[in-house]
Fold Glutathione binding-like protein.
Amino acid sequence: MSKPMVFYYARNACSIAPHIALEEVGAEFEARCVDLTAGEQLSPGFLAVNPAGRVPALVMEERTVTEVPALLTYIASLKTGAGLIPAVSSIEHARCFEWLAFLSSSVHVAYAQFRRPHRFVSQDFACVHALVEQGRRNTIALYREVERRLGDEWAAGNAYSIADMYLVPFHGWSWRLDFDIEAECPKWSAIVERVLDRDAVRRVLARENSHEAEAQTVAASFAR
Ligand SMILES: N[C@@H](CCC(=O)N[C@@H](CS)C(=O)NCC(=O)O)C(=O)O
């Protein structure tokens, strides 16, 4: 019998998107929480899983897959009947992957300039402060662009998809930006509210916020 997949995630991180997808398709997986605030992503145990030191990571039969868009696509394909990716060759299919690319390569990177400036520049403090402020402005501009691109239904048309799951973490990070997302991005906020209200997503939030997650940390799992 094949071993269940192991999913590495962190709280309040981009990994919530594939975490939602795993619950939506009813996948059998073991969830392990990586404590980013304690620097656990840089522990030898986790670096053996993902040498990049980032979450999410999904381990299947000793092989690791990373990157949110790849994980969302893979997980959705485990249960095509769930309809989490629009039909191939439709405009909605293109739109869905447009969202994954835009959020991953533009929005997340701008947010990282603001939140993780040391990925981009060394310890030159003046330069770091300038990058943080420019990253904040770039991110806010991109958040407004997200809102401009959204229609009245779901991100990729009239059905819930993996694109909507990926809109969740960035929305949740807005509080750090000094940006009133509810007022400025009502369509995005409405989508996130509907996503958070789903049963599968409630299970994800319960797991990510539970004490059980503490016990399931990477350190604990490698100590077994
Ligand atoms: N391009 C990657 C980005 C992954 C990423 O940056 N994850 C963050 C959490 S949102 C992380 O692990 N940060 C840890 C660190 O920067 O040390 C993806 O899409 O999966």
In short: The pocket of glutathione is lined by residues 10, 13-14, 36, 41, 53-56, 66-68, 104, 116 (CB under 6 Å). The radius of gyration is 18 Å.
